Amino acid sequence: MKTFNLFLLLLICFTGLSAQQLSVNSLTTEHKTNPIGIDAAQPRFSWKISATGNNVMQNAYQIRVATNASFSSSTQVWNSGKVTSDESVLQKYDGNTLKSGQRYYWQVKVWDNKGRESKWSQTAFWETGLLSPSEWKAQWIEFNENTDRYIPAPYFRKEFDVSKKIAKATIYATAHGLYELHLNGQKVGDQVFTPGWTTYGHRLQYQVYDVTKQLQNGKNAIGAILGDGWYRGSLAWSDNWGIYGKNLGLFAQMRIDYTDGTSSLIVTDDSWKATNDGPIVKNGLYFGENYDATKNLTNWNKVGYNDSNWKKVSIGNYDFKLVASEGAEIKKIEEIKPVKIFKSPSGRLLVDMGQNMVGWIRLKVNGPKGTEITINHAEVLDKDGEFYTENLRAAECELKYTLAGTGEEIYEPRFTFMGFRFIEVIGFPGTLTADNITGVVIHSDMPTTSKYESSDSLLNQLQHNIIWGHKGNFLDVPTDCPQRDERLGWTGDAQAFFRTAAFNYDVAAFFTKWMKDVALDQRKAGEIPFVIPDVLNPQGSETAATSAGWGDAATIIPWEMYLVYGDKGLLETQYPSMKAWVEYIRNKSGDEMIWKGGSVFGDWLFFHPFVNDHTTPDGHTEHDFIATAFYAYSTNILANAARALGKTDDARIYDELFEKIKKVFIREYVTPAGRVGTNSQTSYVLPLMFNLLPDELRAKSAQFLVNDIRSRNTHLSTGFLGTPYLCHVLSDNGFTDVAYDLLLQKTFPSWLYPVTQGATTIWERWDGQRPDGTFQNPGMNSFNHYAYGAIGDWMYRVSAGLDTQSPGYRHLLLKPHPTQKLEFSKATFDSPYGTVQSGWERKNGKVIVNVVVPPNAKATVALQTASNVTEAGKPLSANTAISAVQSNNGKTQFEIGSGSYVFEYTEE
Ligand code: BGC
C-alpha cells in the first residue's frame, strides 16, 4: 500500500513537472533581444525550447503580437493561431501593417512530439523605427566656424518645456561624424561611436533611445557633442580626411507621448545654439584626443546653463538615406587594471595593461591647474624593453589632458580608440599607481556564444588570443587591425575569419549590416572594393580595384551566415550581389576561364624565409591560380545558394559553370601525378578545399601537401587565404595527426609561436617579433590582426567535433577527433536551437565523448573507433534516442535526438 502511495505521489509530481518541463526562452527579433528601432516591415522571430527528456521536437507553435504587454484582444495585431510546424528560427511576422515608433510585444508557445504544451513564453518586444522618410521633421544643424584639418569638437544645446504628463519619450538621432547625446545632465544611452560606420554615401544609421525616465516635467535641456569619427576624420593612410564631408552635423528628433494621447516633437533646428570653445580641442580616430579641462563647459547639458555666448547653428541640407541601426551596438564592454607600472631602461614611465586591448585609458588624477599629461600607446616593447610605436605608422594614438585643478579629475576620451597593451605616461603629477589607470575595452556588443577548452595551456592561450583579436577588430565593421593608420573593413580578412567569429560570438546582426554595405559599395560591373565601407576610391567612383579572396567575401559570408544561422532571408537579400560578383569574374576571365590578374594580394603574408636562408622554399602561390580557384569556389557557392533559394535555373547554370572552371583548372594547374600549382601549401589547400581536383588525385595531392609540411620540419607556409583551410584539408584527407602537429607547433611559422612569446592577441605576421626580439617590417606589422585566428574554426569543428550538416545547426554533425597529444578538447556553442556541446577526454585507456543536442535539433555522431561504444555505460541499443548505428572503416556512426549523452570506447 505504502509503495502504491509513493508511486502515485511520484506520478503526480512527474506529470505535474512534465507539463512545466517544456518551455520557451531566448526570444529574439531579427537576431536581437528586445531591439529598439528596427525598420523591417515583417520582422522575424526566433525562440529556443527547454525540455526534459530525449528526442524532443517541436510539433507546433503559436505567436501573438500586441501593442500592449497585456495582450488583450483589442491590442493584438497578430495571432498566428496554432501552426503545425517544427520551425523555431526566423519565423516571419504576418500581422497588421506595423506602425512607426511603436513598441510591439510578443510571446510564443509550443507543442512538442511528446504531447506537451508549453505555457506562453516570457514577453519579448521590439520597437519600430521611423518607417517613412516623411516622419523626419528634424533639420541638419551644423557649426561651421572652422573647417581645418583638426577642429575642436562642437557642442550643441537647447532647452525646452514639458507641461503635460509624460507617457513615453523617444529620441531618434544620427550625425555626420560621431555624436554623444545628452539629456538633463546625463549621456543618453550606453552606446559609443554612434551612429556607427556605413557606406555613408548610400546610407546612414540612426539610433533610437527610450528616454522616458530621463525627461522631466517642466524645463529640460538636450545637447550633443560631435567628433570627427569616420565621416570627417582621417581614414586610410596618406592623410586622407574629410572623405565623406568636412562639416559635422547633428540630426535628431524626440517624440514625447503624453498620457492624454497627444504627442509633440523636439527637433534639431535653428533654435539650437552651439559652441566650439569647449575642452575637446582636437580629436581623431588615429590621432587620439587633446582635452583641456580648463575649458570645461560645466553643466552645459543641464537646465539653466548660461549659453549667452554660444552661437546660432547653421542649417545643412543633405539627401542622406537614413536607416535604423541593425548591427551590434558599440559599447564599453569591460574594464581591466594595469598589471605593472615600471620605468623602461631609458627611464620612460610605462604601464603594462597585461592585455593587448582596444579602447582607451580612463585616467584619475589630482593636480595643479594647467598641468599637461600625455599618454602614448604601444602594443609591444622592443628587444631592449623600450616602448615601440613604429608599427603604428602615421597614427599618433596620443591623449593629452590638461588639468582643471579642481580636485580629483576623471578623464576618458570619447571620439578615438587605441589598440595597445602598454602606455607611456608623461607629466603625471605625483606618483602614478594602478588606481590612476583603468583600461576601458570597447567593441560591438555581440552575445558570447561559445567556449573552447583543451588540456594544453598554450592552446587555451591561443583561444584567448583569438577571442581578443575578435573583440578588438569588431567595431561596427570588421577591421583588419585597431592600432595603425588603417582600421578598415578589409573584405579578405573578414571572410577568412567569419566561421571562427561565428563561434566566438553571435555575429548575425553585425554581419547582416556589413554585408548590406558590401552590396551597396559593389560597383555596377560587380567588383567588390578591397575595403567596405570603401574609402580607398573616390566616393561615387564607377569602378574599384578588387582582388580574389577579398571580393569573395560577397559570396562566402552570406553562404556561411546561412550555414550558421539558417538565415535564408539574408541569403535572398545578398543573392543579387553574390551573382553580380560571379558574373564580374566570368566577364573578366571569359571563355579561357582563367582569371588573369584577378589576384592583387595573392596569398597575403604567406611565410617568406629569411633573406639569408637559401634552402627553405618560400610558400609562394601563383596569383592567377588563386584567382581561378576562388572563381570556382564562388561559383559553387552561388549554385548552392540558388538551390537553397529554389532558383533552379541559376543552380543549373552555375553548377555547369563550376564544372567548366574545374576542368580548365585541372588542365592548367594539375599534373597527372597530383602535383598542383607552384607546389606551395596553398596550391594544395585551395583545390582540395574547393573540390577542384579529380577524385583519383586527391589522396596524392594531399600527400604532396603533407610532404611539404614535413620537409619544413612540420611548419606551415600559408598566408591569409590558405591558412583558414589548411587543417581542414588535412583532417578531411586522413591527416588529422599532421593537423594537430601544426596546431601544436611552437616554433614559427605557427599559431603557438606568438603564444610562446607572450602574445595576448593574434599577430598579423607569423614572425611579427622574432625569437631574437627583432621585428618584422614596421610598415605591416600589427600585433592585433584576427585573420590567422581562423584556426579557431578547426578547433571547434574538428578537434572538439562540433559541426553541422544542415543550415542553422539543425542537424548537427558531432565528430570529435581525439589525439594522443592532448588529454581533452571540448566546446560548447549556443546554436539557434540552444546549447550544443561536443568534446572528448582520454582517461585510463578510454575515450569519453560528452555531447549535448538541444531540443528541436538532431545529430549524427561520428566516432573515430571501430571498437564497442557504450552510452551511459550501456550498449548503444539500450538508448531509444539512438538509431541507425553503423560501424565500418574504423568509424562508428549513429543518429541521436536531443538530450545529453556520454559515450565511451577503448582508445586504440
Ligand atoms: C591589411 C590587411 C589586408 C591587406 C590586403 C593590409 O594593409 O592590414 O589585413 O587584407 O592589406 O593586402
Q: What key phrases describe this protein's structure?
A:
single chain; 908 residues; 10-stranded mixed sheet; 7-stranded mixed sheet; 15 helices; 48 strands; globular; binds beta-D-glucopyranose
Strand content: 25-35%
Compute the separation of the termini in Å. Answer: 53 Å
User: Ranges with pLDDT <50 over ≥5 residues?
Assistant: 6-19
Task: Give the helix/strand class.
Answer: alpha+beta
Helical proportion, percent range: 10-25%
Biggest beta sheet attributes? 10 strands, mixed
Question: Would you kindly provide a brief summary of this structure?
Answer:
This protein is α+β, with helices and mostly antiparallel strands and 908 residues long. The chain has 15 helices and 48 strands. Beta-D-glucopyranose binds next to helix 4.
Describe this structure in words.
The structure is a single chain. It contains 15 helices and 48 strands. The protein is α+β, with helices and mostly antiparallel strands and 908 residues long. The protein starts with a helix and ends with a strand. The protein is globular. Strands 20, 21, 25, 26, 27, 28, 31, 32, 33 and 34 form a ten-stranded mixed β-sheet that branches. Beta-D-glucopyranose is lined by residues 480-481, 486, 490, 492-493, 601, 604, 785.
Topology:
Blueprint: H1 2-20, E1 22-29, E2 36-38, E3 44-51, E4 58-66, E5 76-79, E6 83-84, E7 91-92, E8 103-112, E9 124-128, E10 140-142, E11 155-162, E12 166-176, E13 178-183, E14 186-187, E15 204-210, E16 218-227, H2 229-232, E17 249-258, E18 263-267, E19 273-275, E20 280-284, E21 288-292, E22 311-312, E23 314-316, E24 322-324, E25 330-336, E26 340-343, E27 349-366, E28 372-378, E29 380-381, E30 387-388, E31 398-402, E32 408-411, E33 418-426, E34 437-444, E35 450-454, H3 457-473, E36 474-475, E37 477-478, H4 491-504, H5 508-521, H6 553-565, H7 568-589, H8 623-644, H9 648-669, H10 681-689, H11 695-711, H12 723-732, H13 736-743, H14 752-756, H15 792-799, E38 802-804, E39 811-814, E40 824-831, E41 834-843, E42 846-853, E43 858-863, E44 870-871, E45 874-875, E46 882-888, E47 891-896, E48 899-906
Parallel strand pairs: 2-9, 15-24, 21-31, 39-43
Antiparallel strand pairs: 1-3, 3-7, 4-5, 4-6, 4-8, 8-9, 10-17, 10-23, 11-16, 11-19, 12-15, 12-17, 13-14, 13-16, 17-18, 19-22, 20-21, 25-34, 26-27, 27-32, 27-33, 27-34, 28-31, 28-33, 29-30, 35-40, 36-37, 38-39, 40-41, 41-42, 42-48, 43-47, 44-45, 44-48, 46-47
Helix pairs in contact: 4-6, 4-15, 5-6, 5-7, 6-7, 7-8, 8-9, 10-11, 10-12, 12-13
This protein binds beta-D-glucopyranose.
